[in-house]
Amino acid sequence: MSYKPMISNVRKASSNDKEGLYEFIINLADGTECRAFFNRFPEWKMTNISRLQKTPCPVCRKDFICKCMESFKSELEQQLEEHQWFDKAIAE
């Protein structure tokens, strides 16, 4: 089975506007929630992502800490940029 994460919603959890650091909660279409950290300067770049422990991991099915979402960083970053999730989340 090939896993393809699809972002359904993004909301800002916290930020340090002066330093350009942001924390977002990313909801995926399959019900998985992730916490992602970004640095805005010089451009948006994901520095870390982890799955919140609300549902088992859709990749490895573990219900505890795993690093599976790390392998989808580039795909999630691309979706965030294409669908302008940053602008929507910061505007809220």
Task: Write up what this structure looks like.
The chain is of the alpha+beta class. The chain contains 2 helices and 4 strands, in the order E-E-E-E-H-H. It has a 4-stranded antiparallel beta sheet. The mean pLDDT is 93.
Write the layout of secondary structure elements.
Blueprint: E1 7-16, E2 21-28, E3 33-39, E4 45-51, H1 73-82, H2 85-91
Antiparallel strand pairs: 1-2, 2-3, 3-4
Key words describing this protein structure:
92 residues, alpha+beta, 4-stranded antiparallel beta sheet, 4 strands, globular
In terms of DSSP E residues, the strand content is 25-35%
Which structural class do the helices and strands define? alpha+beta
Number of helices: 2
Cα-to-Cα separation, first versus last residue:
36 Å
Radius of gyration computed on alpha carbons? 13 Å
Shape: globular
> What are the segments in which pLDDT stays under 50 over at least 5 consecutive residues?
none
Specify the biggest β-sheet. Answer: 4 strands, antiparallel
Average residue pLDDT: 93
Strand order in the largest sheet: 1-2-3-4
- Extended strand count: 4
Helix content: 10-25%
Short structural description:
The chain is of the alpha+beta class.
